[in-house]
Amino acid sequence: MAGTCRINRGLYRWVELAGWTARLLVFAFVGLQGTGCGRRPDSGESETAVPRSVEEQRKRPDLRKGDQPIKLSEPPRLARASEPPAPARTSDGKTTGADNAADEGKQAATEVASSEGSGVDPALLDPAQATGQAPDEYAVKFETTKGDFIVDVKRAWAPLGADRFYNLVRIGYFSDVAFFRVVEGFMAQVGIHGQPEVNAAWRRQSIKDDPVTQSNKRGYVTFATSGKDSRVNQFFINFVDNSRLDPMGFAPFGKVRDMSAVDKLHAGYGESAPAGRGPQQGRIVSQGNVYLRAQFPELDYIKSAKLLP
Question: What is the CA radius of gyration of the chain?
């Protein structure tokens, strides 16, 4: 190719002294041969472009899962469905304001009322009964499909989080609740209830953030969030040192005594959809365990949780 380039440059110098007929012949010759000059190995259609950054590598087709680019494990976020829905809009594009809020309240009341006779414990449908202050220290025993583990909670670490966790356990919230997002080398997330009626009752019951006083190291237990002051009912257990979560506001409130059972939780589904093969959090909120057991039969569950004396 380099030889061709030298030949063509010589021809171009020759045509400067030649007439138009000679020039046309030379141009025809060059067009057939191709100059071969100036082509970069990473810019041609027939060449494989060399990624210039990590971001480009993550976008290459051969580094994708299905039609989604591979991503680093995302922080433990709450389901989008648990966040306030967008305001309704009229035909002229304006929000309905108070009318929309009233309709939303009626919808929530209807969802809760429909649970009467469904076998759901009434205590789970009344968050107002779950606002007591927790002891300075307490322990919770979890029975799961992979064995038991105990979480030791220190209220001083995250007072509001410790209070919420205490009250959820006290009313029996963590019963038949799935570990729906278990990512090896990261964490195990749990807390969306198996009954959609219960999720409807709790979706607006967020608590304010606590200062981060402990680090998200292996075995530490922390509430998931969807932003500022958004903790509700989902928590996660760190498999490894995830101290990168500390500056994001994830405040641990307890620690698992023995991680043996937690380490056995099924992690085959990996990340939640759409980034991975795991369940969609919004569908768990709206469809509960019916959806999980039909499409993700290998998930592990909390069978029960109780306060230890």
Answer: 30
Kindly report, residue by residue over 264-297, the tens digit of the pLDDT: 999 999 999 999 999 999 999 999 999 999 999 9
The residue ranges of every structural domain in the chain are: 2-33, 80-84+95-307
Cα dist from 128 to 22, 115, 122, 164, 221, whole Å:
95, 17, 12, 12, 24
Residues composing the chain: 309
Asked whether the beta carbons of 50 and 42 are under 8 A apart, the reply is yes
pLDDT at 114 over 50: no
Q: CA 211, 178, 184, 62 torsion: positive or negative? A: negative
Instruction: Report the alpha-carbon distance of residue 115 to residue 109 in Å, rounded.
Output: 10
Going by C-alpha positions, the residue among 280, 267, 230, 270 that lies closest to residue 250 is 230
Q: Look up the CATH number of domain 80-84+95-307.
A: 2.40.100.10
Would the CA dihedral through 141, 143, 144, 147 be positive or negative?
positive
To the question of pTM greater than 0.85 for the whole model, the response is no
Place of tokens 């100059």: 35
Of the candidates 205, 218, 291, the residue with the CA atom closest to the CA atom of residue 258: 218
Distance CA(22)–CA(75), nearest Å, equals 69
